[in-house]
Design a protein that fits this description.
The chain is built from ten helices and seven strands. With 276 residues, the protein is α/β, with parallel strands linked by helices. It has a single domain, classed as NAD(P)-binding Rossmann-like Domain (Rossmann fold, 3-Layer(aba) Sandwich), CATH 3.40.50. A seven-stranded parallel sheet has the order 3-2-1-4-5-6-7, with helices on both faces. β5, α5 and β6 form a beta-alpha-beta unit. The termini are far apart.
Length: 276
């Protein structure tokens, strides 16, 4: 029987590239996204590759829809080997000025969205006594960056979710993994980088942060490079719990583990050009 993967948020970027890579390896691909045009064009690409697929237009916050989607996937493919929770949105701004209603939406999509897709497929994986749950986290899930308090909170939550979940599902043959990139050369950051308004006490430092981040993105891995590493995780028999796709995340996580906080803070503030 061909192996199957479920990927959320696969219409564009890394999710799309991962879907094409695993389809080229003979895997069935199922997934959904709110981007209808992206879903349609990905479907055409997967048909040209030759793999079987089930793609739908759906919002990650539609929890009844996710359960119905799960049923259609299991009916079509029989079983699912791997679930990749890839959908997520960014959030940027000084915490003092954050719109908490928008922050709630970020947490709903990034944290509860991952929870919903995992929860939907765990029962079938538990019964078949194998499966893999992979969550897209971030460097800021362990090393919080200034002006990214809400996004960092969502990724800290993902890390805690997966670390806790691991103890519960591993006895049933289900493995879990976190992917923790620092940056990938996409439009993800550009969509959220908005300067605080004139008169904000945070405006100047935020401006320097954005300019520095834009510089770093130019040398970051492109979606295909990052996706090749994620695809290997999907197809691997055994996976590590923590996985990086770029040098910056590996470097900062190493520093975070071994250096005193004062030194870590100094390196971060200098690296992002926001030292007062």
């Amino acid at each position: 029987m061909k192996k199957s993967v479920v990927i959320t948020g696969l219409a564009q970027g890394m999710g799309r590239e991962v879907a094409k890579i695993v389809a080229s390896s003979g895997w069935n691909v199922a997934g959904f996204d709110v981007d209808g045009e992206g879903i349609a064009s990905l479907g055409e690409e997967l048909r040209s590759i030759g793999g079987d697929h089930l793609l739908e237009i759906m919002d990650i916050t539609d929890r009844p829809g996710i359960l119905a989607f799960r049923d259609r996937v299991l009916e079509k493919f029989g079983s699912v080997n791997t679930v990749l929770s890839n959908v997520g949105i960014g959030f940027f701004g000084p915490f003092e000025e954050v719109d908490l209603e928008k922050a709630l939406k970020c947490l709903e999509i990034n944290v509860i969205g991952a929870s919903a897709i995992f929860q939907a497929f765990i029962p079938s994986m538990r019964e078949q006594r194998y499966g893999k749950l992979i969550a897209m986290s971030s460097l800021v899930g362990q090393v919080p960056f200034p002006f990214e308090s809400i996004y960092s909170a969502s990724k800290f939550a993902i890390e805690g979710l997966v670390l806790s979940l691991r103890y519960e599902v591993e006895p049933f043959g289900i493995s879990v993994a976190l992917v923790e990139p620092a940056q990938v050369s996409t439009t993800f950051a550009a969509k959220i980088h908005v300067l605080p308004p004139e008169g904000s006490p945070y405006r100047e430092r935020a401006r320097r942060f954005i300019e520095r981040d834009d510089e770093l993105i130019k040398t970051a891995p492109n979606p295909l490079q990052a996706s090749q590493k994620i695809a290997k995780l999907i197809q691997a028999d055994k996976v590590k719990l923590h996985n990086q796709v770029d040098f910056m995340s590996t470097f900062f996580l190493f520093l975070n583990k071994f250096l005193p906080r004062s030194m870590r803070d100094a390196i971060l503030l200098n690296h992002m050009d926001i030292k007062v």
